[in-house]
Amino acid sequence: MKKARDIIYSLQSQPQFQKLQTYQCIDTVLSLLLPSVKRFIEFTYIKNAILFVALSHNGGKQEFDNNIKMVKDILNLQKPDRCKGVEFHDIRSFVTHTPRKRQKDTATKTQLDTIPIYIERASGEFDTQKIQDPDLQAIAKEIQRIIVARNQN
Q1: Are 26 and 46 in contact (CB under 8 A)?
Q2: Which of 29, 67, 71, 133 has the smallest number of Cβ neighbours within 10 A?
Q3: pLDDT of 105 strictly over 80
Q4: Mean pLDDT, to the nearest integer, of 79-83?
């Protein structure tokens, strides 16, 4: 009976899963970098046998360029097992100027659910006749109507 690891490896080595193998190789190469450099990485891709790394800040690019020689030396000595079918000969970096897309945080959604509903303290008893501007008077009457409606519920 085959082990699960062997089955997964045989599936990943098939041609239709070549992209998966490429991304695993890129993750392996990026794992050689320091965490201070990893936080600047936006995305990566391989094109024309060159691994391109897009960074979010010029300072991150400078740190990446300082550490890239070490990574290249390690890859020249011994290529990781996950990179057997993936070919790239050079690593280049550039700074992307597109803003990061913010992912919707699930924590904020749960925080909104836990916000207590407060009891309306206003009674809606204020004089709107003293307001001379008719537009402001209409707005004040609408606010008064909303407050009274909330107090009745």
Answers
A1: yes
A2: 133
A3: no
A4: 80
Closest alpha carbon to 63 in 31, 89, 95, 90: 95
Kindly state the tokens that stand for 62.
Answer: 């400078």
Give me 78's structure tokens.
């011994």
Q: What is the C-alpha separation between 144 and 86, in angstroms, rounded?
A: 69
113/33 Cα distance (integer angstroms): 39
What gap in Å lies between CA 116 and CA 57, rounded to an integer? Answer: 40
Evaluate if pTM is beyond 0.85.
Answer: no
Question: Per-residue b/e over 136-150, b at no fewer than 16 CB within 10 Å?
Answer: eeeebeeebeebeee
Residues 6+ apart with CB under 8 A from 70: 32
Distance, CA of 86 to CA of 92 (rounded, Å): 16
Residue ranges of the domains in the chain? 4-95, 121-152
Q: First-to-last CA distance in the chain? A: 67
Q: Which residue has the tokens 């691994």?
A: 51
Q: pLDDT band at residue 15, thresholds of 50, 70 and 90?
A: confident
Kindly tell me the sign of the dihedral angle through the C-alpha atoms of 105, 106, 112, 116. Answer: negative
